[in-house]
């Protein structure tokens, strides 16, 4: 792994918190992700299951975690199954975790090789009353392939059809929504790497540069800082494409006078950051670009303050919408009269600001967590209002990552240039 070792106390604590939510005499199983194929003998880079990583810190394929807090034999309260290496793997793929290394990373004492899994599971499951299985219950997930976890769920329910099955997903969503101190530090590290990438761009971007050249600058900066790369497919969108919310071609030339929307951020140690800036290709915003930029920035700053414990997402979104309405009226994009007469279920601002303001952030970019849960200290949200004026080829979104605390919001991207004047000054250097 490129990242530095993570204190195993994080994973020990996470397992304790998870175990405390289980019904008596319950066993839970978590599987790693598959290495996904591309074509022929090709494969994508391995990406660990966020839940398995959260509970173990194990970042290797073909790993299984079993948690059984009431196991009759104390050594089986937490068990990890790992792929056993051999000479062939050592020659072609390199090092795989030893049992001692897995214990050091996870804090789990009992490690078996994967070949022993079915036998050990049979002996444990015979004693367990409830079996917790993990499914992807992210409300926006669209998954057409069968994950390793999903294959296991089918196999397990077929093999042991009369156990009482329970869902791990709601428990994981609830736990993962509240970040531990170590997790906040890892997200902060991802934000810091993003900052380095962005600052590098401010001295690089000028009329004539191609969007993919900007992408290349970022990946260079991210990788040299121990990141595995972009937290999500980067959006590097000049001119009209700044209004295309998920433009990821990054194939066009940036022209003098264009706005350039950058939704680009690094991951670090499987934790994510998520940043958006909109900067002038030639280093100086036009008066109109600056007016729209500052409107979005005012909404962003006001929305950030509203990320406080006790607030409901739906109420927050409504309040942000009102702020946006005022700004759109000032920009002559909406008329005050029309807004007064609008259908409250289809507010007019959505013509120019058509997405949500915030989402959970963590091991997943759109992290798991319940949307009906009030904001709480320890949650990390993005704050990312935008205004998209297609007829002017002018899209502005500004996005930072905010930690909610009892003492007010903490902006994890507070050091990343955001004021229009600061961005112009840095681009002029
Ligand atoms: Mn975002």
What does this protein look like?
The chain has 2 domains: 168 residues, 3-Layer(aba) Sandwich (Creatine Amidinohydrolase, Chain A, domain 1), CATH 3.40.350.10; 248 residues, Alpha-Beta Complex (Creatine Amidinohydrolase), CATH 3.90.230. The mean pLDDT is 97. It has 13 helices and 16 strands. It is an alpha+beta fold and 429 residues long. α1 packs across α2. The strands form 5 sheets. It has a 6-stranded mixed beta sheet, sandwiched between helices. It has a 3-stranded antiparallel beta sheet with strand order 7-8-11. The chain has a 3-stranded antiparallel beta sheet with strand order 12-15-16, with helices on one face. The radius of gyration is 24 Å and the shape is globular. The structure holds manganese (II) ion (MN). The site of manganese (II) ion (MN) has 5 residues, from loops. Manganese (II) ion binds next to loops.
């Amino acid at each position: 792994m490129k990242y530095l070792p993570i204190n195993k106390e994080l994973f020990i604590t996470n397992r304790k918190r998870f175990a405390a939510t289980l019904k008596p005499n319950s066993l839970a199983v978590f599987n790693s992700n598959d290495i996904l194929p591309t074509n022929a003998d090709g494969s994508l880079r391995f990406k660990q299951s966020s839940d398995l990583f959260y509970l173990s810190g194990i970042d290797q394929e073909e790993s299984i975690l079993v948690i059984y807090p009431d196991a009759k034999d104390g050594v089986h309260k937490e068990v990890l199954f790992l792929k056993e290496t051999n000479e062939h793997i050592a020659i072609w793929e390199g090092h795989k975790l030893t049992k001692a290394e897995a214990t050091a990373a996870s804090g789990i004492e009992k490690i078996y090789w994967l070949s022993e899994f079915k036998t050990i599971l049979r002996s444990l499951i015979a004693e367990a009353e409830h079996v917790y299985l993990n499914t992807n219950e992210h409300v926006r997930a669209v998954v057409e392939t069968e994950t390793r976890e999903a294959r296991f769920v089918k196999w397990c329910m077929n093999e042991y059809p009369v156990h009482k099955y329970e869902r791990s997903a709601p428990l994981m969503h609830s736990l993962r929504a509240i970040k531990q101190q170590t997790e906040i530090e890892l997200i902060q590290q991802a934000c810091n790497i993003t900052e380095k990438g962005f600052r590098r761009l401010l001295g690089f971007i000028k009329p004539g540069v191609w969007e993919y050249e900007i992408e290349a600058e970022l990946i260079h900066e991210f990788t040299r800082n121990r990141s595995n790369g972009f937290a999500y497919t980067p959006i590097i969108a000049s001119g009209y494409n700044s209004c295309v919310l998920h433009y990821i071609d990054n194939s066009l030339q940036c022209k003098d006078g264009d706005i350039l929307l950058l939704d680009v951020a690094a991951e670090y140690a499987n934790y994510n950051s998520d940043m958006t800036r909109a900067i002038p290709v030639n280093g100086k915003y036009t008066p109109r670009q600056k007016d729209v930029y500052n409107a979005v920035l005012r909404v962003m700053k006001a929305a950030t303050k509203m990320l406080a414990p006790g607030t409901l997402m739906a109420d927050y979104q409504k309040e942000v919408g009102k702020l946006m309405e005022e700004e759109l009226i000032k920009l002559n994009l909406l008329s005050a009269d029309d807004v007064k007469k609008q259908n409250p279920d289809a507010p007019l601002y959505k013509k120019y600001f058509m997405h949500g303001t915030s989402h959970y952030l963590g091991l997943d970019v759109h992290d798991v967590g319940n949307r009906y849960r009030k904001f709480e200290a320890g949650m990390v949200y993005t704050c990312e209002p935008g205004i998209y004026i297609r007829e002017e080829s002018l899209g502005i979104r500004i996005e930072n990552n905010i930690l909610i605390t009892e003492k007010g919001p903490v902006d994890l991207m507070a050091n990343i240039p955001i004021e229009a004047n600061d961005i112009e000054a840095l681009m002029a250097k």
